[in-house]
Amino acid sequence: MKEMFIVIVTLIVFALVSLMLIASGVTISGINLGVIVLGLEVAYLIFSFGTVGVDEVAAKFIFGAPLGNLKPGLYYAPVGIVTVRKGKGTLYQDELPGEPKQIFRKDDKETVPYNMFPPIRIKFGGPQENDDESLKRDPYNIEMVAEVVPVVSWKIIDATTFFSSYDDDVAFRKILEDKAIEVFGNEFSTVTPAKALGTLSATSQKLQTKLEDETKDTGVKIVDSYVKPFIFSHPLNTSVIDVSIARRSAEVVKIKADGEKRRLIEEGTGNSEARRLMLEAEAIGVAKLAEISKTPEGQVTLWMETMAKAFTSAQYSIVPGSELFTSFAGIKEMLDKVKKGA
Length: 342
Hints:
Elements: H1 2-24, E1 27-28, E2 31-32, H2 33-47, E3 49-52, E4 56-62, E5 65-70, E6 73-76, E7 82-88, E8 92-95, E9 121-123, H3 133-136, E10 145-147, E11 150-156, H4 159-165, H5 169-188, H6 193-197, H7 200-214, E12 220-227, H8 234-292, H9 296-313, H10 323-340
Antiparallel strand pairs: 1-2, 3-6, 4-5, 4-7, 8-11, 9-10, 11-12
């Protein structure tokens, strides 16, 4: 506040001097010197005023020394003496190292363009012998390099402390990125992507704790942070899909083959059993027919058996005069007699 008092006193002195010059009538090129000085002072005062928006945070510095935070509204900061630094007062939501449209993945072949960033690539570990069966079948349960994207929500809560700790929000994002990479290296270097995907929630919590500890008392509040599902290369995804399709196709073929094999076995077993029963039935039937063929009823039975075999074994036509026709006629005659009570 002492410095501001000096500034105000200086401005008052200049104002008095300009009024004295106006009264004395001193001129330069026909223009009153006092008027020139007063005009310059008024212009200086006008350019020394500014405003802080409701969605902004700001801090004042006099010759580099902090003067405190500014509230939304009008402020006075003498040009060349007091500087004002502003930042966004609302929530920052950052994907690191940049938004999806800013990620440049050809950095191994081309120079990264301005305002674009190479992705964060993390080396994952290999599978373990004690992995469960479902994990072993996962196509991503292998050692590989994949893109990892942290998302951090943060807010400036003290502009003076923030600008005293960091150059600007860009520098702060770089620090967030470096801390995130440190966490990823510790968490993912010994596990496969498939296993790491199952613990993203725990990793996100560790990331937030790390960022909160590292940015404590720097005028920032870490609101939230988490890790997005990993980004795999298109060729890898295509290969995984092809492998999955081939594996599923093989399983379908195996299932169909097993089903057909089971059907044939069951059908064969059924046919064998049926044949065995038929042979037993035929043996029993022949024996009984031998006993009852001496009677009229036995002859009817024999005729019916003959007709059944005839129709089953071959394509016969019933022709008058044939044995088959005689059998059929005899049966009909006998049945007619039975109906009449003969």
